[in-house]
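Hi support team,

I submitted a single chain yesterday and got back a structure, but I'm not sure I'm reading the token output correctly. Could someone confirm the output below corresponds to the sequence I sent? I've pasted both exactly as they appear in my results page.

Thanks,
R.
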Amino acid sequence: MTPAIAAAQAPPRTKPSNYPAPFAAQMAGRIKRPLGDLFGLSNFGVNLTTLAPQAVSALRHAHSQQDEFIYVVVGHPTLYTDAGRTTLEPGMCAGFKAGSGNAHRLVNETDTEVVYLDVGDRTPGDQVTYPDDDITAQLVDGEWVFCHKDGTAY
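Hi R., thanks for writing in. Yes, this is the structure output for that exact sequence:
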């Protein structure tokens, strides 16, 4: 195993999105480089994520069990939360406590690339709510299972 790497040189995730159709297509322009996986980290994940102009980080979502943290490296993404929108800049960070219900996502509303680190734990039994979309997710045996809000599977 390599002891260290240049993060920007890490290979991108082989599957660009875990979301089912039609949500997966909304992640066009997002590249995630799973840094933690390269070192065999299993308790938490670390991604170096790049958003092309007008790309989004995810559907606006909130985790029941997973804490999340982001740190902006390059660019000026807009953070959308239940409190509204906040323009971020390099060096700024934000955190989202598990179970808070504060749905969030980043949107690159600029004409230049955004790069940020995102860190999240891998607590079993996590459930994700998406207030703006007809989708829910549950982490089952390390895999995300997606359903409509009425419980029917995608």
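A quick pointer for reading it: The longest helix spans residues 35-38. Let us know if anything else looks off.

Best,
Support desk
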